[in-house]
Amino acid sequence: MPRIENKKQFFAKVQNALAGFLIFLNGIDSFQDYPVIGFINIIIGTALFSVFMLSKKGKFDNEFIKPLILFSEAVGFLLVGYVYFLKGAERLPYVFYAAAAGYLIASLVQFRKRLAEGKSLKIDF
Questions:
Q1: Mean pLDDT of successive 10-residue segments in the chain (125 residues)?
Q2: Which string of DSSP letters, residue by residue, matches 15-57?
Q3: What pTM, to 2 d.p., does this model score?
Q4: CA distances (Å), 112 to each of 47, 70, 72, 81, 104, in order?
Q5: Which of 3, 8, 15, 65 is paired with 87 by a 20 to 30 Å CA distance?
Q6: What's the rounded Cα separation, in Å, for the pair 58 and 56?
Q7: CB-based contacts of 116-119 (< 8 A; 24+ apart in sequence)
Q8: Which residues of 92-117 are buried (b: 16+ CB within 10 A; e: fewer)?
Q9: 75 CB contacts (<8 Å, ≥6 apart)?
Q10: Distance between CA 97 and CA 84 in Å, rounded?
């Protein structure tokens, strides 16, 4: 099993897994009241956790698809905030909207970084 070289890379992968788990749990919770949003969040959460597990086993490098991961986390947190808004929470949706905005900005920065380096965004297995 390949080892993770540094702590920054390890914590980035764990953060992706925790975000995916949080989005997945919200998808399960909101599936009964809002089935489309719940289904989308379940899919996003499962995909994010799967990326964590595959990158942990060394199937592919997480760096090549980092902009896509960050963008899907932004969409997931945007939907989580929207569900809390529909349920009538007062301030909690704004926390998730801020997180979604942060992830969106991070995904755009990573995308521009990949284009500047000349790297493609494809997945190499």
A1: 65 86 94 94 92 72 75 95 94 95 93 77 53
A2: HHHHHHHHHHHHHHHHTTT-HHHHHHHHHHHHHHHHHHHHHHT
A3: 0.82
A4: 23, 13, 17, 27, 12
A5: 15
A6: 5
A7: 119/64
A8: ebeebbebbeebbebbeebbeebeee
A9: 40, 44, 100
A10: 11
